[in-house]
Amino acid sequence: MTSSTAPHGFGPDYAFTGRPTLTRHAPPGFRLTTASRVIGHGDDDFRRAADAVLRFEVHRGSGFLPEQVPERARVGDVNVWAIPVGPLRSRVACRVFAVVDDERTAGFGHAALVGHPQRGWESYLVHQHHDGRVTLDIRVVWRPAAWFMRAAGPAARLALGTVLHRNLRALDPVLAA
Fold first, then answer.
1. pTM of the predicted protein model
2. Cα(31)–Cα(11) distance, rounded to whole angstroms?
3. Radius of gyration over every alpha carbon of the chain, rounded to an integer in angstroms
């Protein structure tokens, strides 16, 4: 199986119509949730954080278990994770739709494939601001897809908040090294 092939249990297409984006507003029927945190300062922190984000370290550091994950984010590659919820393991699969790696911004966006419990996409971008601050900025455009996500109602938003909090702290060990 190539890293761009949809894994067993997931369709080859995105779990929504339209095209994902790093910047546009959420389409009708979707929620937009954002989170940001200063994670460091200066060129060294930016480069280390950028490299870690592009190697999916935000996901690993959040407690997600890699099943089929490329070494580094590349447009078209599929990444599959198991998300432990108590004794259960929910599988999610996304395809990378954008990669940014320039002087002051680095990261990627990936979108849910058919079979993912949510519809939508996420982006994880590290920015080095003009004053030297380095931030991790996460953007999630989403709506429930699976019956259990729809049944969760407001609890789904709380769960997303918990995951985003873990995401924002996931690079702390990388930058502390």
1. 0.89
2. 23
3. 16
For residue 108, report the phi and psi dihedrals to the nearest 5 degrees. -155, 165
CB-facing half-sphere around the CA of 161: CA atoms within 13 A? 5
What is the per-residue pLDDT for 1? 46
Residue from 128, 123, 99, 126 nearest 112 by CA: 123
Buried b vs exposed e over 58-70: b needs ≥16 C-beta within 10 Å?
bbebbebeeeebb
- Straight-line distance from the first to the last Cα atom of the chain, in angstroms, rounded to the nearest whole number: 35
User: How long, in residues, is the chain?
Assistant: 177
Question: Residue 133 contacts by C-beta under 8 Å, 6 or more apart in sequence?
Answer: 38, 40, 41
* 107 neighbors 100 (Cβ within 8 angstroms): yes
Q: Are 58 and 171 in contact (CB under 8 A)?
A: yes
Confidence at residue 173, expressed as pLDDT on a 0 to 100 scale:
92
Which residues fall within 8 angstroms of residue 107, CB to CB, at 6 or more apart? 50, 53, 54, 73, 99, 100, 123, 124, 125, 126
